[in-house]
Amino acid sequence: MKSQKLAAIMLSAVVILGAASPILMGGTTVQAKEISTKNIQTKISTNIGIGQESWGSTVFAPYVDACSYPVFSLTDYAKATGTKHFILGFVVDKNGQPSWGTYYDMEEGPTDYQGGSLLKEIQGLRQMGGDVMVSFGGEANVPLASSIKDVNKLKDTYKKIIKDYGLTYVDFDIEGAWTADFDSIERRSEALALLQKELKAENYPLEVWYTLPVLPSGMTNGVDVVKSAVKHGVDLSGVNVMTMCFGSKVPDGTMGDLVIDSAKSVHKQLKNIYAQANIKKSDADIWKMIGVTPMNGLDYSGNIVDQNEAKEVLNFGKTVGMRLIGMWSVNRDFQNSQGKTNYVSINDSSILQEKFEFGKILSKYDSNDGTEVIEKPDTEDPGDGGEVDGVSAYKTDRAYVAGEQVSYKGKIYEAKWWTKGDLPDAKVSNSWETPWKLIKDVETPGEKPDEKPDEKPGEDGETSEDAPLYNSDKEYIAGDKVTYNGKVYKAKWWTKGNLPDTKVSNSWETPWELVG
Question: What pTM was estimated for this model as a whole?
Fold first, then answer.
């Protein structure tokens, strides 16, 4: 992946904050859960906090070009989209020492003249309940595993950065010529195996990820990179493949399918690698090790992953339990001021989109079962009027998960996914933009929300109260039930216009599940 090059090194001074303190986010004081390890905080980590031990069973973690100018605001993006985790690229060699993209040393980190600071952003994000993974390598520049020839020194260099930044997740982005550089591959594997052994003795949790190139048919040289890690005893948490730039133009609307094909190919490869090493892993175990990172919008092969294809990948990932969805990059999650363009930009997606639209879509991939926040005691939303029909009143400072119901202004809503601070009656252009579904208007008995007067059932037949006739013009979300041809189906994810009884080869190809 391509990192922005600066014309000159920015000499701004980083503003190092004092000890971490809670901040206000939407009127609620929150603070990230920190791991309980001893004697690990250096000067930097004391100021920016310690990472989370677990990010959850499924996670959206987009890449950030950490060396872009000005410094990209992780906290603003998190507040706008709900994205909690980011991968920061890239740490590379500079004259035998680690650096951010060769432009900034590790102690200061990237800064800008406007007062922006990567370290401040990491601190703020962690206080909001989020975290970062630092990525070593990338397409440009020289990886530390190549420049530092001594395995123990390389191990110590990795360890210092991990401790300095309070990292519990690290990534090694190995691409281009470096996927065939035998010496650096072996040296990295040996160093990581030693590092994991040391950290385990210190009771310090660390997930190690590799990011590797891929084709829809699977990894090429990346297979040997993974085999080297397994051979040397590296406990890989996952392999995140770059599902982009496949080398040729493909028909529009098919990139989502190719991303999925790539993931399935990598699943077969990883299962084979571990089987050959006599390490037993189930299909589910392997899916928990896989991540995919497409380019949001236009890539360098002229192909586009648009908003609908992002949703397709998300839905597939949820179906199989794939661990991670990434994106290159949040810096590109904008529309060009000229609208749609025919060239790749590091600052926009080259397609028509709302600001941060990909982040708003893909942040819904977070399972939210591995992170924890400390919140103020619940307080009822002003002017709400309290409980309705036994359903508790909505509270702005409380987090809700899918299926939870609240009352708000005389109506009852149900959460479609994890949410906090989103008003149930907020006006949106599209139903997927709100985490709330109106299920009952107590003030208007008999009204059936989410139904249109001119709805056309797909088929005649008897229905139950909770499974109305399927309507091809209606949007359905995960958990909605419909009756079609006398059978009851339940939506597995958002869908519209997909017939419930469509014949498919694989269960993940249909958004419907037969339940009765």
Answer: 0.69
Distance in angstroms (rounded) separating the CA atoms of residues 90 and 102: 9
**Token digits for 83?**
């994205």
pLDDT tens-digit profile of 18-30? 333 332 233 332 3
Q: In this structure, are 357 and 394 located in the same domain?
A: no
- Residue 62 confidence (pLDDT) above 80: yes
Into how many domains does the chain fold? 3
Q: Which amino acid is at 449?
A: P
- Round to whole Å and give the CA distance between 478 and 16: 44
Phi, psi of 511 (to 5 degrees): -80, 0
pLDDT tens digit string along 363-420? 999 997 755 432 222 333 333 446 677 788 888 767 676 677 888 888 998 888 667 6
Question: Is residue 178 domain-shared with residue 314, that is, in the same domain?
Answer: yes
Measured over the CA atoms of residue 269, residue 274, residue 275 and residue 281, the dihedral's sign is negative
- Claim to verify: residue 326 and residue 208 sit in the same structural domain: yes
Q: Which of 53, 175, 312, 414 is catalytic?
A: 175
Same domain? For 125 and 247 the reply is yes
The most confident of 323-337, 378-392, 442-456, by mean pLDDT:
323-337
- What is the per-residue burial (b if ≥16 Cβ within 10 Å, else e) of 76-107? ebbeebbbbbbbbbbbbbbeeebbbbbbbebe
Residue 80 in this model has a pLDDT that exceeds 90: yes
**Same structural domain, 435 and 473:** no
Distance CA 227, CA 270 (A): 9
Spell out the residues 6+ positions from residue 499 whose beta carbon is closer than 8 angstroms to its own.
Answer: 458, 470, 472, 484
Question: Does 128 lie in the same domain as 172?
Answer: yes
Enclosing domain of residue 457: 452-516
Decide if 118 is inside a domain. yes
For this structure, is 414 an active site residue?
no
470 and 439 inside one domain: no
Q: Is residue 460 part of a domain?
A: yes
CATH number assigned to the domain comprising residue 438: 2.10.10.20
